[in-house]
Amino acid sequence: MSLIKIIGIGDNGKESLLPIYQKWIYESELLVGGERQLSFFEDYIGETLAIKGGLSHLVQLIKSSDKKVVVLASGDPLFYGIGGYLSKKMEVEIYPNLSSIQLAYAKVGESWQNAHCASIHGRSMKGLAQRIDGKENVILLTDDMNNPQAIAKYLLNFGMTEYRAFVAENLGSTDEKTGWYELEEMKDSTFSKLNVVILAKQFKGPSWTMGIADHEFSQRKPDKGLITKKEVRVLSLMNMALKPTSTVWDIGTCTGSVGIEAGRIAKDGEVYAIEKNEKDLENCLENMKKFRVDMTVQHNKAPEGLEDFPDPDAVFIGGSGGELKKLLSICCNRLKQDGRIVLNAATIETLYEASQAFKEEGFKTDITMAQISRSKPILHMNRFDALNPIYIITAFREEEDTGIE
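Structure (tokenized):
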């Protein structure tokens, strides 16, 4: 069996192909591709196979064939295309065409080597806000659901008005159309199904560093203060050992302060938060929009609802709702290898109960008592106001070494 050729093709069909590529296509015995790509070769006399459904079945069909095979792919087969998948499963030769990104930036007339690319084609837009926040130049690969209108509405929901959008439709075809749009304009416009969106920052938007000031968060009134204080929050986040791709649970999220800061660190990961108090949940949702972190929030009393979340790399527990032992057992059993559980306890009783529960689960603990005092003006001088002491309990599996001193 000869090597399978994967050939990239543009929206203008045969015109986008070198003569040698067309020769290989017509000399093949089995032509594989999407229905749109195959429609460019109505005069093809060999067998055709339209790509539908799972790719594993497609691989089996190609491998079992003794025919000369050519696979057609849109643009660059190795850029969010079928080429990357097939090249891992069989021996192939890949002949790329221009990608949609190259064509779109050519229309804009700007370089794109520093652009941040995000695909929302066939996947949820969830978490897009924190992934692109602060980026100067972003290109989005879209689909029918995550279209330019939906993108504009999503960005406006998070107040990301510093971006202007360039929409490139049907690139390379006779129906090609391109243009710049303000987000308010884009959300009410209609576009072709085949498009890519470039986001260009027009002015500097808001930005925050780790350790967002407590007063920046919306909090419940009149009993303000139900928030993990900035200093304790930073220490807790440090002990969670987050990575850009971490999956995080924030249990008893309240204002969402820890989950939001975790989401700004784990931009390419996911944050799942749970809160039993409806008023706190409203503040959390408001804070998510302000700080541009699109985490999944559930109104429930943990451990109820945790079964809906994927296994975590890190867990933060700010409140247990009185079922601490059961909650910790679930967290310990669901935690991924090398994961961390960080629990904040305000009382000695909770510290003891948590320490015993972790021991029973075979977890080691590292405990820090944070006694924080903040300066406060008094006349023309300053004094210190003490915050309530907090025990920061970091739990990890016995065979692991956290490196915490």
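The radius of gyration is 27 Å. The first helix runs from residue 19 to 27.
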